[in-house]
Structure formats: structure tokens, C-alpha cells
TrEMBL record:
It comes from Shewanella amazonensis (strain ATCC BAA-1098 / SB2B). Gene3D superfamilies: HUPs. Residues 4-143 form the UspA domain. This is UspA. PANTHER family: SENSOR PROTEIN KDPD-RELATED, STRESS RESPONSE PROTEIN NHAX. Belongs to the universal stress protein A family.
Length: 143
């Protein structure tokens, strides 16, 4: 944990924002930096059936730009003296978060769980559970 950052993956939901308080608290406790990661899903397109009026690349750029605006807004509200790094990646959320968690630079992941149970648990991908199982560092899942 020494000199390794706290990773806070976010999808910009209220639930994820709740976990941010824990991430900042842990970073302050260990006197380390905070890394904020947002993963933009890859747009799916079929060249044979062009339903979209824009290309998948244009859609991806638009999604990344929207994420960057949300990240800028989030940073403006974050009042901390901690070093903060932000990343926006494209891909599957769990895969990208696990890759970052296992990069050697992360000492702990603080991630929100959307708390699905029953049938909703099976219908929605549980990113927090996948990260907890795949990360080599400690993972704090916040409900």
C-alpha cells in the first residue's frame, strides 16, 4: 500500500459518488494520491446494418468528450490537497478497472456496488464483484 494510489472507478452515478468519500478518506489516511477512472463502453456497430447516422468512431469520440466534461465537473467539486490523476478508457468496465488495479501503481480500489439482488443481480453485470475477484490489491466495495 505504501506510495501506491487509491483507485476510484466511477460511472458518475450518485452511488459511485458516495464511494468517493471513502476513497478520499483512505487516500488521506495513507497519504497517497487518488486515481479516478471512468470506462466508456465501446459502441457496437454492424457495418452491414448501419442504423446510426454517425460512425462508431464518431460515437466513441462523443462518449469520451461527454465523460471528459463530467470528469472536469467532478474535479471542480473535489476539494482536496491530494494528488489526483484522471483517466478515461474505452472497453469493458470490469476488464479495464482490473487492468488498472493490477498495474502495480494501485494499492487499493474503492468501488461502489449498485446493490442489485435477486433477478436484477443476474440481469446486470456486477462490475464491483468482478473487480473484487480479479484485483490483486485490496478492494473496498461501498454500498
Amino acid at each position: 500500500m505504501v506510495n501506491k494510489t487509491i483507485l476510484w472507478p466511477t460511472d458518475f452515478t450518485e452511488t459511485a459518488s458516495h464511494a468517493l468519500r471513502y476513497a478520499v478518506e483512505m487516500a488521506n489516511l495513507y497519504k497517497v494520491g487518488l486515481k479516478i477512472l471512468h470506462v466508456v463502453p465501446r459502441p457496437m456497430g454492424d457495418e452491414n446494418f448501419m442504423i446510426l447516422a454517425i460512425t462508431p468512431e464518431e460515437l466513441a469520440k462523443s462518449m469520451e468528450d461527454a465523460a471528459a466534461e463530467k470528469m472536469t465537473s467532478l474535479l471542480a467539486k473535489l476539494h482536496t490537497d491530494l494528488p489526483v490523476e484522471t483517466q478515461i478508457r474505452m472497453g469493458e468496465a470490469a476488464d479495464e478497472i482490473i487492468a488498472e488495479a493490477n498495474s502495480g501503481e494501485v494499492g487499493m480500489v474503492v468501488i461502489a456496488s449498485h446493490g442489485y439482488s435477486g433477478i436484477k443481480h443476474f440481469l446486470h453485470t456486477n462490475v464491483a464483484e468482478a473487480v473484487a475477484n480479479g484485483a490483486q490489491c485490496p478492494v473496498l466495495v461501498v454500498k
